[in-house]
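User: Predict the structure for this protein chain, please.
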Amino acid sequence: MLEIFNQIDALIITHHENKKYISGFKGSESLVVLLPSETLFITDGRYKTVIKNDLKPEVTAFITETGQSHQAKLVEVLKERKLETIGIEANNMTVGMYESLQAELDGSTLVSTFDVIEGLREIKTEDELDKIKAAVALTDKAFAHITENIKPGMTEIEVRNMVDNAHFALGGDRLSFETIVASGPNGALPHAKPTDRVIESGDMVTIDFGVFKDEYCSDMTRSFFVGEATNEKLIEIHNTVYKAWETQIAAARAGMTGHELDKIGRDIIEEAGYGEYFIHGTGHSLGLEVHENPRVAKGWHKELLAGHVVTIEPGIYVEGIGGVRIENDIIIREGGCESLNAANPNFDVAIKG
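Assistant: Here is the predicted structure, written as structure tokens:
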């Protein structure tokens, strides 16, 4: 039983991915209530057939009557159980819903909770890991397609479209996020949006992309030259980022903190004289969402545990010159880690000659 049930009698789950994790339902219109001995699920008649296959066996479903809101059914179900203290997901529930529930559930007290289900989601099961690996494999294949077909004269938007189309052609369900393609000086922007800038021979191009497959996602970044590698400064920057990335992956293991793992790469970048240009944390977890906890970042002093999936993505961004980021998804294991991406991280991966 969750420790939270020492403080509350039930938890109303409103966060989309948390509802999916607890109930198995993949749709959007629902509410979930978690109790110590049962899980309640509320939706409407549109999903009556779908939930026969989606819902986990231990979940009890309630279908709203025609014209009845999900919240009205929720109040009805909760009142039947005469609960004294009910938790809410304070980071997700709207103020309007909170205030109306407080008024309607006048015999109960609403208590704010934070990251209860998110905490359960941090350590992935073997089934979840298999789904993440499948998503990563699609991203690896998409990258191979990109490096075979990218060439000078294409725009960033054209490359973005090629990345996205490759994911869907390979069987991806939806993108993890809006694909980032940044060429030349635009590479100095970590989250650059693709533009109509034409990629020139010798440009460093950074692509950050990922895909969902069976509800779980991937996230990968590669920076490489298109046409020819002649910019010695960017070669130096790439080699520095590569060294940090490679060293962090070699060091990652259960028991170290996100702060400690971040520092390993940050120290390498600082020693090379680029410390001020590494302007974000090393990484984040992913799964049902592309950004989850734990983090690999300065100030994250919680230990990484076996079964955590995190990204390792150090980067250097220099205004007027460009930038480099290299990113793999890894599984934290006892005594080491499992790096999932097989795609080539070298700067000359797409040079055409």
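The two ends are 61 Å apart (CA to CA).
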